[in-house]
Write a structure and sequence with these properties.
single chain; alpha/beta; Rossmann fold; six-stranded parallel beta sheet; four-stranded parallel beta sheet; 15 helices; 10 strands; 46% helix
Amino acid sequence: MADAGLERVVRAEDVAHMGITEVIRHARYIHSQYRRLVGSIKQAPPSLAILIDFPDVNFRLAKHLQRLGVPVLWFVSPQLWAWKRQRLRWVQQRVNRMLVIFPFEEAFYRARGVDAEFVGHPLAALPMPTLSREEYAAQYGLDTAKQWIALLPGSRQKEIGANLPEMIAAASELNINSKYECLLPIASTIEPQWVAHQLTVREFFEDRFGKGLPPKIVTVPDAREALFHARASVVASGTATVQALTIGNPFVVVYRVSPLTFAIAKRLVRYPAEIPAERDAEGNLPIAMPNLIAGRRIVPELVNRQFTAANLAAALRPLLDDTPERSRMIADLAEASAKLLPNQGGDPIQRVCDAAEALLEPASARSSQIATSDV
C-alpha cells in the first residue's frame, strides 16, 4: 500500500513490541501513536478502511470508522471461532465485509449474520521454490548425501528458547549414524547474530543431547525453501504450519508455554460446529491449523509436557524413512492444502482488491451526490 502511494500515518514497526514488560515500557508512545491515527481518521475520513488481522487495535479503530460511516473491510479474521467469541458482536456491528483465509471461517461467520467470503490463503497461491537440491546445498554448504531436517522453532526469542533445544535434542537422538543435517530458517523478526550466539552456548543444549550426535545446523533465510528441500520438519505452532502444509512437507507440530497459560487456554478454547475437532487422550483439542483445516488429526501435535526429545524423535522417525505413515501424511497434506483456495479459483489478494473496489463504488456514489447537492 505504501508503494502504491498511500500515506503512512503510523508505522507498524514503530509500535510492534512483544512481551508484557516491553509493551508496558512503551505504552505511552504506543497510545500516542494510536491517538494520532484516530485523529487522522476523524480529520479526513477515508472512503474505505481495510483492516488486516491485529484485533486488539483494529476492533477499536472499527468503532471510530463505523461512527464516521466509513465502510470497513476486514482481511484475515481474528480467531473468534477459537476463543473470545463475545467479540463477535463487534464484527456484526462494525464490519461491512469479512474476508477470511480458512475455509471453515466463511460458514462460521455467515451462520452468525456476518457478510463473509473465503478468498483463500495467500500462501497457497505462491509458486513452489525453484532452486534444485544441488544448488541449495552448494549455496548453504550442505551435504547432498545426507537427509535434511528443517527446524522452525518460532519467530520470537522466547519461542526459540523454549522450542529449539528440544528440537535439536530430538535430531541428535536420530543422528546416530551422522546421516542428518538440520536447516534452521531465521525469521525476519530475529537477529541472526542472536541465533548464532545461542548455538555456540553449549549449556543451552548439552544436557539434552543424550546418546546421539549433535547434527550440523545450518541457518538459512527462507522457511519455504527449507521446507521444500527438507525430508521432514519440526514446526512450532503458528503460521509456519500453514507454510509446511502448502509445501507438502511431512512434519510434527510442537509448542511449549507456561503451565498456567496452557491450563487457561485449555479451559477457554472451544471450537464451533463448523470445526470438527476431537480431544486427544489427555483431553487436548487440536491447535495446529492443518488439523483444523482437515477436520481431523493429520499431523502429530506435541504440546507442553508431551513435547520431549524422546517423543519428538519417535514422531519424526517414520516421516524420515519410506514408510506408510510418511506416504499417508503427504497425501493428507495435499488434500488439506487444496482446501486453502476457493473452488472458483483466483488469487486471494486479487479477490481482496475486488472486494475493496466493490465497497468503494457506493462510497464514490455518495460523494458524487453530496458534491451535486452542494453545487
